[in-house]
Design goal:
The chain has 142 residues and is of the alpha/beta class. Helices cover 37% and strands 20% of the residues. The protein has helices at residues 2-13, 37-40, 47-59, 77-86, 127-139, and strands at 20-25, 28-34, 68-73, 90-95, 120-123.
């Protein structure tokens, strides 16, 4: 989670919403990414998506069934769909997102009968620090 939190801080410094993600396999970090939709002019450039793309590129495959995803914010519906398609084994996240989250809030993506893969879910890892980054970021813009 430390790598994901650093990526989130990097995103904030780049004026992006501070969300970071890391893909880990067998204790080794394969990919770390920060939110970058504004920087890349790509609405799909969420940290989770970018980390999944990089890990898939490095491993040369689309299935990441032996990998874990660590992310600082509860994933949205788009990212939850990508996590399912990538067959991520375990999902760890920091801050909950009652407004835009899709795991424990909103559509509860992995609880739907149409979801074809459900990772193990672990919430609240690094929650205080992840939430603090988001709170500080949005307070500065209000």
């Amino acid at each position: 989670m430390r790598a994901a939190l650093q990526a989130a801080a990097d995103a904030a410094a780049a004026q992006e919403v501070p969300v970071g993600a890391a893909i880990v396999r067998a204790g080794e970090i394969l990919a770390v990414a920060a939110n970058a939709p504004r920087t890349l002019r790509d609405p799909t450039a969420h940290a989770e998506i970018l980390a999944i793309r990089e890990a898939s590129r490095l491993l040369g495959r689309d299935r990441l069934e032996d990998c874990d995803l660590w992310v600082t914010l509860e994933p949205c519906a788009m990212c939850a769909g990508a996590i399912a398609h990538a067959r991520i084994a375990r999902l760890y996240w920091g801050a909950s997102d009652p407004k835009g989250g899709a795991v424990e809030h909103g559509p509860r993506f992995f609880s739907q009968p149409t979801c074809h893969h459900r990772p193990e879910l672990y919430a609240g890892i690094g929650e205080a620090e992840a939430g603090g980054l988001l709170k500080t970021f949005f307070q500065a813009r209000r």
